[in-house]
Amino acid sequence: GNASATKDGSHYKITGTAPGVDMANPMSPVNKSFEIEVTCS
């Protein structure tokens, strides 16, 4: 997988991909994307 983060003032955005397993087909690995946004005060 991979991830990257950006900062804009007190706003953070983290995006990337993470490896996982599809339980319907456990022999076939999958990569899923994710996005997290956080604002700190």
From TrEMBL:
<dbReference type="InterPro" id="IPR008691">
    <property type="entry name" value="LpqH"/>
</dbReference>
<feature type="region of interest" description="Disordered">
    <location>
        <begin position="1"/>
        <end position="28"/>
    </location>
</feature>
<keyword id="KW-0472">Membrane</keyword>
<protein>
    <submittedName>
        <fullName>Uncharacterized protein</fullName>
    </submittedName>
</protein>
<keyword id="KW-1003">Cell membrane</keyword>
<dbReference type="Pfam" id="PF05481">
    <property type="entry name" value="Myco_19_kDa"/>
</dbReference>
<dbReference type="GO" id="GO:0016020">
    <property type="term" value="C:membrane"/>
</dbReference>
